[in-house]
Amino acid sequence: MNVFIAILKGINVGGHKKILMAELRGLLTEINEIENVKTYIQSGNIIFNASLKDTSLLEQLIQDKILDHYGFEVSTIVLSKEELTHVINKNPYAEVDIKRLHCTFFKTEPILENRQKLETFDASPDVFTTAEDCVYICCETERYSKSNINNSVAEKLLKINCTTRNWKTCIKLLEMAKSL
Predict the structure, then answer these.
(1) What Gene3D superfamilies is this protein classified in (predicted)?
(2) What is the number of other CB atoms lying within 10 angstroms of the CB of residue 15?
(3) Where in the chain are all domains bearing CATH 3.30.70.1280?
(4) Which CATH class is domain 85-178?
């Protein structure tokens, strides 16, 4: 079985799109291709095994299941354990305090013109590095909520759906994936 990590965008934020993780685990095990579902914190981080390798198909199966059950759409990004390992290993800010680091994951690949718009964006005093499938963000302070580069900015410039996680969550998700 293949190990995957799904990250859901915008659930359980400010009372919107409420999904209980225990209920979500049960719901996702109803998908024939998915098993051994685990979750991490309430923000929609899911680790699971799947018989499929196609992350786009897994994203669609999860999104459809949530829509059918809850009646609202939730953008979902699915990464293989190997993809998340690659993202973590390529962190250009590995020497920085983990509390200052975040990663914005791309749902689809942005076109070159939009990628260039992001790469030339001035996020001072924060810094960021654009990779093939994500943006590594290093906040000047520990306050991502005050950062000039955030999920909304990335989505606006790239014109794609994105989902951001703090670095501690990224590390924990990989740790959980390795134990599955």
Answers:
(1) bacterial protein sp0830 like, SP0830-like domains
(2) 6
(3) 2-83
(4) alpha beta
Cβ proximity of 70 and 97 under 8 Å = no
Domain 2-83 = CATH 3.30.70.1280: yes
Residue type, 176: M
Provide the 10 A C-beta neighbour count for residue 20: 12
pLDDT in tens, 14-54: 778 999 999 999 999 999 999 999 999 988 999 999 999 99
Shortest CA distance to 154 belongs to which of 87, 106, 89, 91? 106
Q: What tokens were used for 92? A: 């250009």
List of E strands, the chain: 2-8, 34-40, 45-50, 76-80, 101-106, 127-130, 134-138, 162-166
Judge contact between 3 and 81, C-beta under 8 A. Answer: yes
Q: What Rg, from alpha-carbon coordinates, does the chain have?
A: 16
In whole angstroms, what is the distance from residue 51 CA to residue 49 CA? 7
